[in-house]
Amino acid sequence: MWIKLKQRQLEQQSAMTAEKAAQYAAHTERLEQRVRVLERIATDRGADLALEIDRLRDGDRLPTRAFGHQGA
Domain-by-domain residue ranges, the chain? Predict the structure, then answer.
């Protein structure tokens, strides 16, 4: 009975770890996308910087609740 309980606990912990890993992977992907946009803005002299910055500020806010803190 004790072994079954430990096995069930390990399965739950494994599932939680996998879910956290997926959240971090998604978060990392969003950050990489933002860096690519910022690199393009910084290197493209013809870009309308104000428009791009406003778009980033207003449309691409990162959800941070899943990571235990608030803010953008």
Answer: 20-60
